[in-house]
Design goal:
The protein is built from two helices and 29 strands. By secondary structure, it is mainly beta. Pfam families: Glyco_hydro_28.
């Protein structure tokens, strides 16, 4: 029971999943589109003289219980065969269960996806997908397991807020490889319930870098375990390798590795921030067993390393190994600051770690 997408004769996209609900959004360019829409979308599509192919008119229930495979396939086929700009409308707030689907091209008009959200999926596979100018998160994977994502290209203006590239939450056994992400927020956000995540060969920037968190907002409990970020290039991002938690939150973020990273003009190259928003209540979330290894490049600020941990539950087991970060343009020596952090270094570490491990 898988879901496969093949678009264009020379460009292949594959999405596969088991018993999964999906929301999708696209922009209203001259394109055959797959969208999770509302009345405003329908209004704009009429203004643009686009034909709307509503999956409900092709028999979809959207109740999370009935099999909507045939309805989605038929709506896609109708839009794909239409030579003018068109939209496949997947109504907002519904859950669509599918079995094996093949949505194939080439279509008579092109396609541009804006955003995708996958809920409660297993054996999810996405390859060579392009997402452009989402209003918020471009791709969200929630409550899923055994996920493979590769070859994604995600693009939005660097000034666009909340346009995270890939968002992972409450999901296990996830691999992300070979993606290029340029947005106005986190290239990748890793949140509560993420376990066994491996990211490799990513290009990030502009954006807010690779972020674990924010965790523990509204005094909640959150857990992240066993995350590896490997071989990433970051250009002009506000952060590089970041862990961020809210005061008052509980839980842990542990067994995390950031390695083989190149940063160019990154404002906060290495940062643990357990004081993400002002609060009188200290954070109770334990950050432990975190490795920053083989990280090189330039910082847009003098503070290249900041370990700002909870006074209530200090960071434990922080390792800096083979790190070399200098200030962009020769603007003086880079610095590091630490608070409530237990750390150690291995190999050459520039800037020098904090004066003491407190």
């Amino acid at each position: 029971m898988a879901f496969n997408v093949l678009l264009f004769s020379a460009y292949v996209v594959v999405i596969s999943f088991f018993l999964c609900s999906v929301d999708a959004k696209v922009n209203l360019m001259n394109a055959s589109s797959l969208t999770n829409g509302d009345d405003s979308l329908r209004g704009r599509s009429l203004e643009s003289k686009k034909i709307v192919f509503d999956v409900r008119k092709h028999g979809a229930y959207g109740d999370g219980q009935h099999d909507d495979t045939k309805a989605l396939t038929n709506a896609w086929a109708a839009a794909c065969s239409y030579s003018q700009p068109s939209i496949v409308l997947i109504p907002k707030g519904k859950r669509y269960l599918t079995k094996h689907i093949t949505l194939s091209g080439p279509c008579k008009s092109s396609i541009t996806l804006m955003a995708l959200t996958f809920y409660s999926c297993s054996n999810l596979k996405m390859e060579n997908l392009k997402l452009v100018n989402s209003q918020q998160i471009h791709m969200s994977v929630e409550d899923c397991r055994d996920v493979r994502i590769s070859g994604l290209t995600i693009t939005a203006p660097g000034t666009s807020p909340n346009t995270d590239g890939i968002h992972i939450t409450r999901s296990k056994n996830v691999q992300v490889t070979g993606c290029t992400i340029k947005t106005g927020d986190d290239c990748m956000s890793i949140e509560d319930g993420t376990e066994n995540l491996h990211v490799k060969n990513m290009v990030c920037g502009p954006g807010h870098g690779i972020s674990i968190g924010s965790l523990g907002d509204h005094n909640s409990e959150a857990h992240v375990n066993n995350v590896t970020i490997d071989t990433v290039r970051l250009y002009g991002t506000t952060n590089g390798a970041r862990i961020k938690t809210w005061q008052g939150g509980r839980g842990y973020a542990k067994n995390i590795v950031f390695q083989n990273m190149i940063m160019e003009n990154v404002w906060n190259p290495i940062i643990i921030d357990q004081n993400y928003c002002d609060s009188a209540t200290p954070c109770k979330k334990q950050v432990s067993n975190v490795v920053f290894k083989n990280i090189r490049g330039t910082s847009a600020s003098k503070e290249a390393i900041r370990l700002d941990c909870s006074r209530n539950v200090p960071c434990q087991g922080i390792t800096l190994k083979d790190v070399k970060l200098t200030v962009k343009g020769g603007g003086g020596d880079a610095k590091s600051t630490c608070r409530n952090a237990k750390w150690k270094k291995s190999g050459t570490v520039i800037p020098q770690p904090c004066a003491s491990s407190k």
